Amino acid sequence: MPATKRFQPSHRGATPSIAEKMRSRAKEVEATGKKVIYLQVGQPSTGAPEGAIDAIHQASDTSILGYTSAAGIPELRARISKNYQDLYGAQVDPERIVITFGASGAMILALVGCFDAGARVALPQPFYYGYRHAMGTLGVECVPFDTSMENHFQPTVEDVQKIDGEIDGLIFASPGNPTGSMMPGQQMKELAEYCQQKKIRLISDEIYHGIVFDDEVPQQTAVAFSDEIIVVNSFSKYYSMAGWRLGWMVLPDYLIEPISNLAHNLYLCPPAPSQYGALHAMDCRKELDAHVTRYKKNRDILVKELPAMGFDQFAAPHGAFYLYCHVQHLHHDSMQFVMEMLEGCGVLAAPGSDFSVRHGHHFIRFSYAGATADIEEAVDRMRKWRAD
Ligand SMILES: Cc1ncc(COP(=O)(O)O)c(C=O)c1O
Description:
Blueprint: H1 18-31, E1 37-38, H2 50-62, H3 74-88, E2 97-100, H4 102-114, E3 120-125, H5 129-138, E4 141-146, H6 157-161, E5 169-173, H7 185-198, E6 201-205, E7 230-234, E8 247-250, H8 253-267, H9 272-281, H10 285-305, E9 322-326, H11 334-345, E10 347-348, E11 350-351, E12 363-367, H12 372-387
The chain binds pyridoxal-5'-phosphate.
C-alpha cells in the first residue's frame, strides 16, 4: 500500500513569532490577577490623529473607496513629495513615490523587485527581525553582520568591508529598531557612496523619521545622497496609524514601473480609506509632535533610572521609542531574563534573540511608546525587583 498522501503547509510559515509567545505568557500572568506593563510593544499607544479619522468619514460620504491605482492616489504621492521638500529640502518627483501596505509591504516589494532568489542581502546587527524573516520567505539570503556600540550600532563602510563574500544589497534603519540610534549624515554619505561604487543596492528604512529627540544626530533622508537608493517609510510610527497598514517607498525612475506591476499583481492596491486618512494625517503635526514630546520624556526617565538598576550598557537612543540594553552581566540568556522579570515584577520587555543572530541573547529591548505614568510605574517595579 502506498503511504497516504497528506496536505502539508509549505516551509515558509515555519518561523515562530517570539513576540506572540511573550504576549501569551504575559496574558497568563495577567490571568493570575497581576497587572502587566507592556514594554515590548513596537507601536504607539495612541490612535490616528483626528484629521485622519475625519477625512475617512468625509471620503466615505463622497466616494465608494474602491480600488485605487497600484501606486496609490496621486494626491497622497504629491503630498509626500512636498514633505521631502519641506522637511529635508529634497526634491522627489511624486512619480517616484509608490504607496504600499506599510513599510512591511514596501520591503517585500523592494526585495521581490530587486533581488532574485539566492541573492545576498546584508543586515547590520541588531536589526528589525521582520526583514530577516521576509528574506527567508522569499528565498533571499540574509547576511547578518556586526556593528559596534561605539558607532551606536549603525553600520560603517569598515563594517561592510568585513562581510565575507559579495553582497547584492544592504538594508539599514535610522533611527533603528531595536536601538533607536541614528546614523550621522557623513556616515550615511560614505555608506551610500561605497554601495553605489560596489553596486550594492542600498535600502534605507526611515519608518521612525519624525520621532527624533535631540539635535545630536540630525535627521537625514538617504534620498538626499543618491537617486539609486530605495527609501522605505510608513504611517505606522510617527503618524500613529499602525493598523491602517499604509507606507510608501521612494524609487529610482527605472523601478517605478516594475514595482507598480508587482504591487498590482500581488495585491492590486494599497487600502483606499487609509490613503485618504493619511493625506490629512500629514497636516496634523501639532498633535503628532505631542506624542514625540511624550516619547522623549519617557526616554529621559529610562536613561536616567535604568543604570542604577544594572541596566547600564546601551547606545544613546536618539529617536524611535526603544532602548536596547546589554544584560549579559545579569543573565546568560535574555529570553529567560525577560520571563523572570515578567514573573517577578510584571514588566514585559522584548528579548534580543530576534534582533541579532549573534548577540541577541545578551540584550533586551525596552519600548517606551506608552503613557509616562506606565513608564514611571515600570521603573519603580523593576527597581524593587532588582533590589530583592
Ligand atoms: C524598523 C522597522 N521597519 C519596518 C517595520 C514594519 O512597519 P509597518 O507597520 O509599516 O509595516 C517596523 C515595525 O515595527 C520596524 O520597526
